Amino acid sequence: MAKQNGSAADSIVVVQAKTDGPREAADEIARQLAAADLAMLVVFVSPVYEPRTFIAELSSRMPDVPIFGCTTAGELSPGGWDEDSVVAMGFNAADFVIAARPLFDLSTFRVDHGRSICTELQNEFAQRTEHCDHTHDSFGLLFIDGMCQREETIMSAIYASLGDIPVVGGSAGDGLRFEKSWVFHGGEAFTDAAVLILIRTRLPFRLFKCDHFEPTSTKMVVTEADIEHRIVKELNAEPAALEYSRAVGLSDSKLELFSFAAHPVLVRVGGAYYARSIQRTNPDGSLQFFCAIDEGMVLTVARERDPIDVTSRLLKELTEDLGEVSMFIGFECVLRRLDVEQRQLSREMSELYRRNKVIGFQTYGEQYRSMHVNQTLTGIAIGKRTLAPQ
Asked: Which of 87, 245, 307, 318 supports an S-S bond with 212, CB 3.0-4.6 Å?
């Protein structure tokens, strides 16, 4: 729990459960947080726990606490990288004020409907935060069904509606099965849904984005695509899988998830490059992407940098900027993890996260301000409290 002169390490209470079943995991989380006065609880839940059972059981044990979160492709725990667990973050009521809204039926989601929901949420948020003084500032967390293929539409609606409130988040995972992922709201688990949480705090914070790629001179143009389903059929007027393999120097017979993790492509937006990851090769030789694509889009082959060095330098820069960082809330692409594992750097990355208190989950995609990206670590660095709560 928060202390009068404490930090985010006290203001955000992190606990973890690794048990045999969802009821036992709910018991463990509720037991560890029984004495905390929480504005909300955010849970990142491995798909080994049946999500509807887990969230119902946890909500029945903590009926007065709003609970949000999602299923994962891996957890970022107090001990570093983890799997088959539940990581829970309790946001203390002394330091955080929140308001949240679910977004349902994402398969038929319209931007105008999203804007309406965001307007309602902002109005509620304004009422709840009207007592806050000028030292408070706001950010948003967004959790989206990672199988919905609608992240860009959701981000467009939110970005156009929230003004100067920045948003970060992640697309829910399902391990490496890519079958069904869930988000949590109101004591229930939903597919084809998202939840947006607005948060106001007196604690200093900074949003961040980190990947370990740089552009090369090799380009590919999307010449035929199924835009609705994120499928690229042709690159440079050649079958997509064959042309991708040629461009990155792989045999098309070797294309698999690990190949795509090691060889993402980049898209340039507003002078910066963002990673676009491939999920799989389809039987017809087309490529299924994790992000939105379009005909005429230019894809740049990426070159890898040292992921440990890049990530370490970012965490250091954020710490220096804030004076001191008590916690990094992180959303990390599962393909980033696979790439690091292939390079036999798992131990180093996990230790880096443990040492810097990077807490969160591994995703099917990451949200950063107005963008939906892949193979990236996004999140928010929380600094220490400078004033005691009144």
From this structure: 307
d(CA 174, CA 147): 9
Give pTM, 2 decimals: 0.92
Amino acid occupying residue 360: G
One-letter amino acid identity for 373? V
Coil/strand/helix, residue 29: helix
Three-class SS of 48-86: CCCHHHHHHHHHHHCCCCCEEEEECCCEEECCEEECCCE
Three-state SS string over 206-235 comes to: EEEEECCEEEEEEEEEEEEEEHHHCEEEEE
Q: Please give the C-alpha separations between residue 290 and each of 137, 276, 373, in angstroms, as whole numbers.
A: 32, 7, 9
CA angle, 361 as apex, 359 and 366 as ends, to 5°? 110
Q: Which residues pair with 280 in a beta bridge?
A: 288
- Give the C-alpha distances (Å, rounded to integers) separating 133 from 11, 260, 386: 18, 48, 14
| Cβ–Cβ < 8 Å for 168, 207 | yes
Q: Are 45 and 70 in contact (CB under 8 A)?
A: yes
Average pLDDT over residues 204-215: 95
CB atoms < 10 A from the CB of 238, how many? Answer: 15
- The pLDDT assigned to 386 comes to 64
For residue 7, which of 377, 357, 364, 361 has the smallest C-alpha distance? 357
